[in-house]
């Protein structure tokens, strides 16, 4: 593949991932990875996606800073910070392929059910700190193994029927902290190669454009459309783990 073709593929993948993440708050790696992992080796694609995803999260947090619910997110974050180191240990010592497959199936089934259900019956408000912390722990564990830390919190928000602004304000800080912590753990053992840094620099224009378009569209979609977008992305992300 020529250098021009690689640049176009890289920019297209990053734009698509940034657009989806700017719109929904998560799923950058699922969307961009569906393309990049077929073009770059994992040792280059994974840290590149993490760096790009963290950049998108930073932009999301800044653009939507007035609606961020850091106080509520802290319970989820505390649980997630305990789950990530365990996931990193499993990645280094255990074959986690079956776990990713099983989780992908569960997420896909839930998303398909939620998209097809005639009416939604929601649980009571998120008033249990222990349950929220457990969901956060599960998200950190899953995120370390699948690069999808936001999947469980997003499902938890859907089960409780949270409005889009409240859901985004809760999940966005959680994902940002989880990704920063995971990247810090990885960098404590490995450094980013010059190739990854160059590719990251090349992808910045597409990253900025995709994020901006996604954030603008987030402010314009209604509640019903946003819920279907989230569930559709969960279904896509789950299938990416299965296929």
TrEMBL record:
It holds the Pfam family TauE. Keywords: Cell membrane, Membrane, Transmembrane, Transmembrane helix, Transport. It is a multi-pass membrane protein. The chain crosses the membrane at residues 43-62, 74-91, 97-116, 137-156, 171-189, 196-219, 225-242. It comes from the Bacteria. InterPro entries: TM_pro_TauE-like, TSUP. It is found in: Cell membrane. Belongs to the 4-toluene sulfonate uptake permease (TSUP) (TC 2.A.102) family. This is Probable membrane transporter protein.
